[in-house]
Design goal:
Blueprint: E1 3-8, H1 14-23, E2 31-38, E3 41-48, H2 51-54, H3 57-62, E4 67-73, E5 88-90, E6 96-104, H4 107-116, H5 127-142, H6 149-162, E7 165-173, E8 177-182, E9 191-197, E10 200-206, H7 209-214, E11 218-222, E12 227-232, E13 237-241, H8 253-258, E14 264-265, E15 268-269, H9 270-288, E16 296-299, H10 305-315, E17 318-319, E18 323-325, H11 338-348, E19 349-351, E20 360-365, H12 372-383, E21 388-393, H13 421-428, E22 432-435, H14 438-445, H15 458-461, H16 471-481, H17 483-502
Parallel strand pairs: 16-17, 16-20, 20-21, 21-22
Antiparallel strand pairs: 1-4, 1-10, 2-3, 2-4, 5-6, 6-7, 7-8, 8-12, 9-10, 9-11, 12-13, 14-15, 18-19
Helix pairs in contact: 4-5, 5-6, 9-10, 9-14, 11-12
């Protein structure tokens, strides 16, 4: 899960890109980067940290140009080293920078092909660098001295033939324009829009519609699965379908947790989808426990607040914000290791005892992954005097690895993997646990976009839309991306930095 943005403007784009990144900060808090293009010259700044910390005034002053791309990252594959922050760059052909959201599932094979057949060396463990080199190689094979739109679309068509997995991409071709493209399944979101100015139209490509809306852009369209949009530096827009076989399969977890509620993804309002999740949960509770004894419904902020409101209304129960969130602590779900996640929960939430004492409380969360946060919050509710504590999840049990760019690598870390609902409830410490049913979740996310063929629901049912995901692949992924592996890579990165500083 990352956030990407690209812009072709009529004046300096650095502050617009910065503002867009702050809007997309929820998609990645590990690193941020930006590259701008001034004529045939590139200006780059990227580093670990939040957007506000990575870009100081001196950096912004140096990011000159009327065209650029930017990225916020949270690591799935690779390490949290700043060497893997994006955008990434290759000098041939033309000088190309790329920012990527998603995860490639055949990156090992591509890496081998790039070395043996394409004569390209990959310097990091990031699949984004692999994707950049595949695109660059294909563009180099068919381009003359200046890339024309048809050359770029042919190169992207070859990328689709070679690359498997999830990828929403913005790439900058020095001096010529930016291109946005999406994998043939459309797993990760990407869209583009237009803003009229006195000097002419400006265009932006971004992960979520809210980034466009905040900056005054009108959304033109989502980039379709397998489609590419090329915006030349002069503002001329070209778009083309570059994949032969597409299956429109956006990730349903965007609606559950990842995206902001004020975004519209693939024509579907995230906010409306989450409202429906609350309605469906209420229906299930009324079926299972028509004579429930719930006194108050309290969401675990922030994502679940939208679902908790209609849930309370349908049950005729008070809605109260009894958990107060510290806004200066990052999302525990995307923290790099379990130790940090555990330590952050108590710092992140505090209770309003008035809303808990002597009451039967139904806590509402968007989903339950490792159970770390849920377990501690349930105990906080009991410490605050709750008589009974129930927990409702707006999503079904997460039992399987995500291979498309969300940090859910090791099934052994999932509280639901291999456990019954009763066993999960016992571990978390609740008196009753209820999950959303998968058909109901799909119904909630389904909207007015009739082009959507299905949703990627692989974390719930192990049905991977791209195919080719077997136990060998999952085991390899698990060994590369569990908490222990991340700790080892990050320690190695620190040692390299220290050796460099000593030298």
């Amino acid at each position: 899960m990352c956030g990407i943005v690209g812009m072709v403007g009529k004046r300096a784009v650095n502050y617009d890109l910065y503002d867009a990144l702050t809007v997309l900060q929820h998609r990645g808090q590990d690193a941020a980067g930006m590259v701008t293009c001034e004529g045939d010259r590139l200006h780059l700044r990227k580093h670990n940290g939040l957007v506000r910390d990575v870009f100081r005034q001196a950096h912004m002053d140096s990011l000159i140009g009327e065209m650029g791309i930017a990225h916020v990252r949270y690591p799935t594959a690779g390490s949290s080293s700043s060497a893997e922050a994006q955008p990434m760059y290759v000098n041939s052909p033309f000088g190309i920078c790329l920012a990527h959201n998603g995860n490639l599932t055949n990156d090992d094979e591509l890496n081998e092909d790039l070395f043996r057949a394409d004569r390209r060396h990959i310097n990091t463990s990031s699949d984004s660098e692999v994707l950049l080199n595949v695109f660059s190689h294909e563009l180099q094979n068919i381009s003359g001295l200046r890339p024309i739109p048809d050359d770029i679309f042919k190169a992207i068509a070859r990328v689709h033939e070679r690359v498997i997995g999830a990828y929403a991409v913005v790439a900058l071709i020095t001096g010529h324009g930016i291109v946005g493209f999406r994998d043939p399944c459309g797993i990760r979101p990407i869209l583009y829009g237009k803003r009229e100015t006195v000097n002419g139209p400006e265009y932006m490509i971004a992960s979520e519609s809210v980034a466009l809306n905040v900056l005054g852009f009108d959304v033109i369209d989502d980039i379709a699965p397998g489609e590419a949009v090329y915006i030349q530096s002069n503002g001329k827009v070209h778009r083309k379908q570059c994949a032969v076989d597409t299956v429109y399969s956006p990730c349903i977890f965007e609606h559950v947790y990842l995206a902001r509620p004020d975004s519209v993804i693939d024509g579907i309002s995230v906010y409306k989808a989450r409202l429906k999740m609350g309605d469906k949960l209420a229906d299930k509770i009324l079926r299972l426990r028509p004579d429930h004894d719930i006194d108050v419904i309290i969401p675990i902020p922030d994502t679940s607040c939208t679902a908790a409101l209609p849930l309370a209304h349908r049950l005729g129960v008070k809605y109260r914000e009894g958990l107060v969130k510290n806004r200066y602590i990052g999302r525990t779900f995307i923290m790099p290791d379990q130790k940090e996640r555990k330590a952050s929960v108590r710092r992140k939430f505090s209770t309003v005892e008035l809303e808990f004492r002597g009451k039967n409380v139904l806590l509402v969360d968007d989903s339950i992954i490792r159970g770390t946060t849920s377990k501690q919050i349930v105990q906080m509710a009991r410490d605050a005097g709750a008589k009974k504590v129930y927990l409702a999840s707006a999503a079904p049990p997460v039992r399987y690895q995500n291979v498309y760019g969300i940090d859910m690598p090791d099934t052994r870390e999932f509280v639901a993997h291999g456990n019954t609902i009763e066993e999960i409830a016992e571990y978390i410490g609740v008196d009753w646990l209820i999950y959303q049913d998968l058909p109901d979740l799909i119904a909630c996310a389904s909207g007015i976009n009739k082009k959507i063929d299905r949703f990627d629901t692989s974390i719930f049912d192990a049905d991977y839309v791209t195919g080719g995901i077997d136990e060998t692949y999952l085991t390899r992924l698990q060994s590369r991306r569990n908490d222990d592996a991340k700790t080892m890579r990050n320690t190695a990165s620190v040692e390299v930095i220290e050796l460099h500083n000593q030298a």
